[in-house]
Amino acid sequence: MAIKKLLIANRGEIAIRIARTCKRMGIKTVGIFSDLDRKSLHLDYCDEVFGLGAGTLADTYLNIPKIVDAVKRSGAEAVHPGYGFLSERAPFAEAVAAAGAIFVGPRPDSIKAMGDKLSSKALMKKMGVPLLPGTEGGVKEFSEAKTAADRIGYPVLLKASAGGGGKGMRIVRKADELKASLEGAQREALSYFGDGTVYLEKYLENPHHIEVQVLGDGHGGGGHVYDRECSIQRRHQKLVEESPAPLLERHPESKKKILEVATKVVEQMKYASAGTLEFLGDDEGGFYFLEMNTRLQVEHPVTEWVTGVDLVEWQIRVANGERIHQGALVPHQRGHSIEVRVYAETPFDYLPTGGRVHDVQLPVGPFVRIDSAIYPRYDVPTEYDPTLMKLSVWGADRAEAVSRLRGALDELRILGVQSNQGLFYAITREKNFIAGDYGTPYLEKNRAELKRIFNEEQARLMPWLAMGAVETLRQSAAALESAAPGAAISAWELSARRGQLREGT
Amino acid sequence: MRYSVTSPETEHRLATISVDEQAWEVALADEKGGETKQLIKGAALTLRDGLLELRLESPAGMRVVFPVHRQGNDGVVVLSTALGSFRLLPARGSAHDAAAGARSGAKSIKSSMPGKVLKVLCKAGDLVEVGQPLLIIEAMKMENEIRSTAAGKIDEIGVQTGQSISTGDLLVKISSGEKK
Question: Check: CATH 3.90.226.10 for A5-104?
Fold first, then answer.
């Protein structure tokens, strides 16, 4: 039984992205929307739409009964959850199944198993996936700490078991520093948290965020769909993603191992649908499991670029019961792809902006992809996440991808809403990024240089902008004058008078 | 004529522009409070369909095109570039504003973002220090702490918990005058 009608339980760019693949596969789509999203672009891409009414997220996109009701009323045979919202909630997958529809995603037991950080780590350890080396419990005696540190290897991090926020934390780089640091950390832990227990963990000087895309058929078929690196982050949210991971290109042995490990997880879990294993990587090529996301990832376009695999199509094929026979996917990794997330926020302080998009000019041309849900005169709601669009490019190699990204960003114009595109202007011109040499501390470490690149261009533009603004006002004043002869008053004068009126009140 | 420029980095700069038939002189306030001047000769500007084209004689043939939008009737112009959107507005009576502010010793803290007021952390009559958190505003699923930019007494709170606000809305008025 092939799915003929599918409900997309999401909004914005990802709902559009899913609808596109459905259209190609001849599947009718059902969209949902909250009252705030009455003018959202994703509705234009769906064959039918169901309103969820007003209210908070809990009343709309997170409301399982309302969405299941839309599934029943529309007669949709399947539900694609997208990312975020209900995509990783087992009760939603169960409710969809109970309503007689197919959940396009993993089985609820896989979602549950990976939903808890501790139990997922335990399960991964059993399957032979490397975890960040550390002590299982707290240590009290120096001899205990010494044995553990020797086993883990320096540098090690001492952390208060009861703590957080950096209190009771010490980095130990050499064996002879351990004793003093342990005592210090224990003292701090005791005074701040009333409990002197500390534990040890391997310390990574320049951690990298590495991940492996996987795709399984639920019967043990499938495997990895190559790697990505997403080390450039702010507030623990990714800004730039690429495939292949520059870190793993420097460590081909680690790349081979990490991909093998991911395939093994798919086989052993009999994992169904798309998922992502996230790891911390270090500059020596070591990698350590962080968590597994049991859904389609925001940054999936870079994987699609380098493998030619439409991940949404395969999610639907697997949901249809199709098996992935050995070699059926055969994903080759060809060339290089980079994606940036254009957010409605300021480039360096990450402050939310929002407002009205007066106009938007999207870059086009060879090997450029836009996943966007904005259009001229669209008011960006502040109630949802700040993504305006994802811009991704492909190049025959990384250098080509970087220069293509630079060119595409230079073509992008979002008139009205302040975005973080200026940060990407700087990143794509910064030498460490160009060299592919960066870890998660990248934005902090290179902040001054990135700001310098931005400011230099801003200083160059400013006179033209000032002239442009004056001319715009002068011409609109002239237009006003010709419309109402005799009313010879400039726009500046008008605005100054209004200003004085306001001051007077 | 003076203009205030709001860049995507939310820095406020002042630009002074003199225009005659042949040349524009643009002076920009730099970070250290100084001014840099630039004389631009032979600029031809054309505006059509929301696109502004600037052609310069020197360097020969140079051409810059910006999408522009005039916002409302307040003389605000939005221009977009590869760095993001810039807003230019007339720095109306900025000297006058500053003098008025100094006389009354009052300072208004306005919202720099649209969103929803999650929490009001102060009340009228409170004495506050620079950097003290005043409100928490939720926007784009994130909480943002609004801190005081002045020391003094809270005269007025312009918003309530749960209220939706836009950029530029008055949040708090602080009088920095005589301490009692």
Answer: no
- Where exactly are the structural domains of chain A? 5-104, 142-202, 208-445, 454-504
pLDDT (tens digit per residue) in A32-44: 999 999 999 999 9
Q: How far is B52 from chain A (nearest CA, A)?
A: 7
If you count residue pairs, one on A and one on B, with CB atoms under 8 Å apart, how many are there? 203
- Check residue B11 and give its pLDDT: 55
> Which band of pLDDT confidence, cut at 50, 70 and 90, is reported for residue A164?
low
DSSP label of A36: G
A374: left (phi over 0), alpha (psi -120 to 50) or beta: beta
Q: Identify the weakest region by mean pLDDT among A255-259, A369-373, A501-505, B31-35.
A: A501-505
Interface test with B, best of A356, A470, A480 (most B CBs within 10 A): A470
Q: Is B49 domain-assigned?
A: yes
Determine which helix (DSSP H) or strand (DSSP E) holds A368, and give its type and residue range.
strand A368-372
In chain A, residues with a C-beta closer than 8 Å to the C-beta of B144 are 351-352
The total domain count for chain B is 2
Domain housing B25: 2-90
CATH of A208-445 given 1.10.10.10, 3.20.20.70, 2.40.10.10, 3.30.470.20 = 3.30.470.20
ipTM value of the model?
0.82
The verdict on whether omega for the bond into residue A376 sits within 30 degrees of 0, i.e. cis, is no
State the angle between helix axes of A117-126 and A108-115 in degrees (0 to 180), rounded to the nearest 10: 100
